[in-house]
Backbone:
């Protein structure tokens, strides 16, 4: 069996540059590498409903937003299957079977679940669907026999839980499911891009993100307002690089050629950092570089999105056909799971002979 990718996003809003450097940019590279037999990109709408059950319109509105971001960033439906999670009901059945292989205590220990519960103030009233989403994610991954899952660092505990489910299932029922491997961003700065306000997480709900579709004026305004070093009041003051959002973003998006092209006095980003540390380099100059780099990255994505918005029928067909193809793949795995669990009653004629032995 060849190498297979499964990854995706919750369609709760437009994708931001944290999604882009965390996994989307890498997905496009992997898609075009020719190393993978199949690539599945999922809009996890069912998972998004676990904490948006009272507002399904939010999810419906953003199905196309995320699809537009995918396509404008370079995902190609000829090379990657883009689909909607809820349109593949086989995933729900797999989740139900996997629930028997995981204890409540184990889910409670999952660091990602604990963080998400706290962030959403669910401590006293956790929706069951939200609580069990590590199991749902395991179903998503295993349904397509994914060998590789490109995600951000915060999702590592989820992949570990998937591995536990796969190993337990295979131990009980025989070798059926494939063990996936996590693929983290290569650049440390891309592991978890902070918000423009310096908060640890870039999030739509926190209002501290830059969207892939950000227009130039909004982009410039957000870069100008970025958190830097509060102690770097005057240009001549020594500044800190650590925790300085502007330099974190430069680490994620900029290379030495960018720096040298705009500011020839620097051979690369490290020289600029050294200058900032010893003093004499103002925040606005550094932000000017970042704005240039981000605009260079986002301009073609923005232009492609504007063209796609003129043909939403095409986007609809990409999602519809992708969902059909994904369902076919998931159905094959579900058949194998049922067979291994010996609950494929009407596909196994030996059941009649077994019952004859029982009833004589």
Residues:
């Amino acid at each position: 069996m060849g190498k297979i990718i499964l990854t995706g996003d919750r369609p709760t809003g437009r994708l931001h540059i944290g999604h882009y450097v965390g996994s989307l940019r890498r997905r496009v590279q992997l898609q075009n590498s020719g190393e993978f037999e199949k690539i599945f990109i999922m809009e996890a709408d069912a998972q998004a409903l676990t904490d948006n059950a009272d507002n399904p319109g939010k999810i419906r509105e953003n199905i196309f937003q995320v699809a537009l971001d995918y396509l404008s960033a370079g995902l190609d439906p000829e090379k990657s299957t883009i689909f909607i999670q809820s349109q593949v009901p086989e995933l729900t059945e797999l989740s139900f079977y996997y629930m028997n292989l995981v204890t409540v205590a184990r889910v409670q220990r999952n660091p990602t679940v604990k963080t998400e519960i706290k962030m959403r103030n669910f401590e006293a009233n956790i929706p069951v669907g939200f609580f069990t989403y590590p199991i749902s994610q395991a179903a998503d991954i295993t349904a397509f026999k994914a060998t590789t899952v490109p995600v951000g660092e915060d999702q590592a505990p989820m992949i570990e839980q998937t591995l536990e489910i796969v190993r337990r299932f295979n131990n009980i029922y025989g070798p059926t499911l494939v063990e996936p491997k996590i693929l983290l961003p290569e650049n440390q700065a891309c592991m978890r891009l902070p918000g423009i306000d310096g908060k640890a997480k870039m999030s739509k709900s926190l209002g501290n993100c830059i969207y892939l579709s950000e227009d130039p004026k909004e982009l410039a305004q957000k870069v100008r307002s970025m958190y830097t070093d509060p102690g770097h009041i005057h240009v001549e003051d020594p500044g800190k690089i650590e925790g300085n959002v502007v330099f974190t973003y430069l680490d994620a998006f900029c290379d030495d050629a960018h720096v040298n092209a705009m500011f020839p006095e620097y051979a690369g980003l490290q020289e600029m950092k050294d200058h900032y540390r010893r003093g004499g380099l103002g925040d606005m100059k550094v932000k000017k570089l970042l704005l240039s780099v981000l605009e260079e990255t986002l301009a073609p994505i923005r232009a492609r999105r504007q063209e796609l918005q003129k043909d939403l029928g095409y986007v609809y067909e990409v999602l519809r056909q992708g969902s059909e193809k994904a369902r076919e793949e998931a159905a094959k795995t579900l058949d194998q799971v049922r067979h291994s669990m010996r609950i494929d009653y009407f596909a196994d004629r030996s059941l009649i002979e077994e019952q004859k032995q029982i009833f004589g």
Q: What stands out?
A: The first strand starts at residue 4 and ends at 9. The beta strands are 4-9, 38-43, 81-84, 148-150, 181-183.
